UniProtKB/TrEMBL annotation:
<feature type="transmembrane region" description="Helical">
    <location>
        <begin position="235"/>
        <end position="255"/>
    </location>
</feature>
<feature type="transmembrane region" description="Helical">
    <location>
        <begin position="382"/>
        <end position="400"/>
    </location>
</feature>
<feature type="transmembrane region" description="Helical">
    <location>
        <begin position="406"/>
        <end position="427"/>
    </location>
</feature>
<protein>
    <submittedName>
        <fullName>Amino acid transporter</fullName>
    </submittedName>
</protein>
<dbReference type="GO" id="GO:0006865">
    <property type="term" value="P:amino acid transport"/>
</dbReference>
<keyword id="KW-0472">Membrane</keyword>
<dbReference type="InterPro" id="IPR004840">
    <property type="entry name" value="Amino_acid_permease_CS"/>
</dbReference>
<dbReference type="Pfam" id="PF13520">
    <property type="entry name" value="AA_permease_2"/>
</dbReference>
<feature type="transmembrane region" description="Helical">
    <location>
        <begin position="167"/>
        <end position="185"/>
    </location>
</feature>
<feature type="transmembrane region" description="Helical">
    <location>
        <begin position="197"/>
        <end position="215"/>
    </location>
</feature>
<feature type="transmembrane region" description="Helical">
    <location>
        <begin position="267"/>
        <end position="294"/>
    </location>
</feature>
<feature type="transmembrane region" description="Helical">
    <location>
        <begin position="326"/>
        <end position="348"/>
    </location>
</feature>
<feature type="transmembrane region" description="Helical">
    <location>
        <begin position="447"/>
        <end position="467"/>
    </location>
</feature>
<feature type="transmembrane region" description="Helical">
    <location>
        <begin position="479"/>
        <end position="497"/>
    </location>
</feature>
<feature type="transmembrane region" description="Helical">
    <location>
        <begin position="46"/>
        <end position="69"/>
    </location>
</feature>
<keyword id="KW-0812">Transmembrane</keyword>
<dbReference type="GO" id="GO:0022857">
    <property type="term" value="F:transmembrane transporter activity"/>
</dbReference>
Amino acid sequence: MKFFSVTSAEELAEKGYTVEIRDDELLADLGYKPELKRNFSTTQTFGIAFSIMGLLPSIASTLAFSLPAGPVGMVWGWFCASCCIMCVGLSMAELGSALPTSGGLYWWTYKFSPEKIRKPACFLAGYANTLGLLGGLVSIDYGFALMVLSVAVIGSDGTFEYNSYDVYGVFAGCIITHAIVGSLATKHMAKIQTACIVANIGVILITVIALPIGASSKRNNAAFIFGKLDNLSSWPKGWVFMLSWLSPIWTIGAFDSCVHMAEEASNAAVAVPLGIISSIGMCGILGFICLIVISATITPELSSVINTSFGQPMAQIYYDALGKKWTIAMMVMLLSIQWFMGLSIIVASSRQTWAFSRDGALPFSRLLKVVNYKLGVPVRAVCFNAICGVILGCLCLIDTTAANALFSLASASNSLAWLLPIAMKLLFGQKSFEPGPFYMGPIFTKVIPGFACVYLCFVIVLLMFPIEGPSVTPQNMNYTVVINSAVWLGALLYYFFDARKWFEGPQTTLTTEEIDAVLSPSLEYVDEAFPKKE
């Protein structure tokens, strides 16, 4: 793959070029011409990650993973995992600032890997990231379906009962609506992200104020909140605490969406790293506060919350503190935000699908790489993700254990996709790496990614464990290990038996004339390739 030298951002700024022109110049340096519209500001780039994280709805969806370890698992498990995730985010932010492209993870893997392994490593990273984002979509919408049905149970005073087919029906309907709205022009999607930021913070404030007021006569003390380690599982107590990390790992796991929006972000070299770091930081801090409040107001009999008839532990916590009407109101707010989480991630996942198809790696790439230029959206990639999501969601028809694998499925594949470029840059790319506006310095650019790699290796193993153990049966096994292993191994087999004959890694989409315009010292040619804004 050939890389192109371009006029620097500073030189273009001196000559009166807009931020968008500098973005397009940098993209051309990576070998691509601009095909998407840059309608996302730095705040909105942060917003798409923060929206997908959907802090409180995500905590509600994954609380069952941390409850078996008690308040210590909820509070300190969140804190420890958040710090580790920030190291991954910092490592990715540095790469995203230097090389902002929608296909970032597999593109970076290709650039920094040794010649002999760069193509298969790139291929694996791309497929892992595609599956991870798809798993994120499916798990978010599965959580949405459970919330909707839990509201129905609460509203009927427990007389309404639902089965797996009801869950799947709500889930599939949710994905279809996401595909429709996710195909809107990017200018509308950008505005939605701003609204999502406000809505997320609003529901957090309501919760941290309302829960202590509602449970004023029965709040737990500090010793319970910060020091009570339970073991409501068959695993050893120490491992139950580690499994409580699954909640923050899944919740704060969408920061790479900023990378996938790089070709729609204005001033991408700054917007992408800021979006990654600020979304992780804000979710980490606000989540820590939320879980302290939840631990302070939850009933000490945690088994009653885990086994609630509502099918949703957070609904039971609201119900115990606030009563029926307020619980329904709070759950409606949470599921509304959860719907927008799914909308945001189908946007991000479709950009990964589009970028990977642009480089010819996915089946039906010729169809999936097409952009609707009127909308500035890869509509076919959006629909492809929706169809795959509906198929993958059939796991929830098997049983609850299989459905829970949807959460770890997303995190495991994304962890591998994050690990590969960070490790390749750390091991083989130190000399060739040219930092962008965000740079950690000569020492921390090695130390932090090194720790991030160790952490991600541990997380991949952690996510393969069943929630109930150590005796594994077909009923309690974790389907994550089956699905992820099949996709990862399948991707490598596909590469070595077929794709190696034609897959060349990231490909330039610039024509000869556009390359000449980029390389020309004359601004007349640059203006011809990428005209100024009026």
